[in-house]
Design brief:
The protein starts with a helix and ends with a strand. Strand 18 and strand 19 form a beta hairpin. About 30% of the residues are buried. The protein has 2 domains: about 120 residues, Carboxypeptidase-like, regulatory domain (Immunoglobulin-like, Sandwich), CATH 2.60.40; about 150 residues, Sandwich (Jelly Rolls), CATH 2.60.120.200. The chain is mainly β. Strands 11, 13, 14, 17, 20 and 22 form a 6-stranded antiparallel β-sheet that branches.
Length: about 300
């Protein structure tokens, strides 16, 4: 008998909690939806003449609603999303583009070089959805340092090593964007191909370092740095990430966070970007890369 009373008591408590799941007096939410976020040239500041500069892989968004009385972060949501909001009335809405660092879902975070999207004076209504559709962001040109760009539009790529030829191909069924992309081919008996940037880059601000890359490969592709820890030390190559083959899925965009690897070189200011394609299965290896962009904050004084 006592046991039945206890069960009934806790059941009643759970029912009460479920009926009062929203904080405050409002129990019926408004909704807002976002379909996706793309990157485009800033109308007031042209960042590039190549469309490949603006390929993106923004798969989530952080949403904030605010007015003169409050600033409420709703959270981070994968795109497309439809989000309940326990607010009613006029609000400003901020969308912060979120990416997967190194292609890993667990490391989703805002990309420091994409601008927040501000949408002023939007009305949230109970049980109605404010549809924001597909939105556009721009690069933060004010503090973005484009350390290196390679869109494979010139005839001579800026990637090479004596034992590896980086081809430029222009067939429409291969190129990611614009007129060309880079290609590395491995013979079935070739176990690896290593290639680095011709130029040694100099970055004085060690607060962050990203490599943006579009890739399409049927063999694993590693990406890292070739540098040294001091002026008198030797150059060594280490890799931050190995990209898996994606030939059956098509081109993929990735944002590679190089800061942790760079710290292993004591943030030495000069370095090359290094790639290595591995061919352990004895196939004809094909690696296509495009729209390479090395980004950092502008140099400190």
């Amino acid at each position: 008998m006592n046991r039945n009373i206890i069960v009934i008591f806790f059941s009643a408590v759970l029912i009460c909690l479920s009926c009062n799941k929203f904080e405050g007096d409002q129990t019926v939410p408004a909704f807002l939806s976002v379909d996706g976020i793309d990157v485009a040239n800033d109308p007031s500041y042209s960042l590039s003449n190549y469309s490949g500069c603006f390929t993106s892989n923004i798969d989530a968004v952080q949403i904030t609603v605010s007015n003169s009385k409050e600033n409420h972060v709703l959270g981070v949501f994968t795109l497309p999303c439809r989000v309940p909001v326990l607010r009613n009335g006029k609000y400003n809405i901020k969308l912060k583009p979120v990416i997967k660092y190194n292609g890993i879902a667990a490391t989703r975070n805002s990309y420091p070089f994409y601008r927040d999207i501000e949408i002023k004076d939007q009305t949230l209504e109970l049980d109605k959805c404010l549809e924001l559709g597909n939105r556009t962001t721009h690069y933060e040109s004010g503090y973005l340092n484009k350390v290196w760009e390679e869109y494979f539009e010139p005839e001579i790529p800026t990637l090479s090593l004596p034992d590896t030829i980086v081809h430029r191909v222009s067939s429409a069924d291969t190129v990611r964007s614009d007129r060309g992309c880079g290609a590395i081919y491995l013979a079935p008996d070739q176990s690896a191909a290593t290639f680095i940037s011709n130029e040694e880059f100099t970055v004085n601000n060690n607060s962050t370092l990203f490599l943006e890359l579009d890739y399409w490969t049927n063999v694993p592709l590693s990406v890292g740095l070739c540098s040294r820890t001091s002026l008198n030390s030797k150059y060594e190559t280490y890799y931050a990430i190995q990209l898996f083959p994606n030939f059956d899925k098509g081109w993929n965009k990735i944002y590679i966070h190089l800061g942790k690897l760079w710290s292993q070189y004591n943030y030495y200011k000069q370095f090359h970007i290094a790639f290595q394609a591995l061919n352990s299965n004895g196939i004809e290896g094909k690696v296509y890369i495009d729209n390479i962009k090395l980004t950092a904050y502008k140099d400190v004084n």
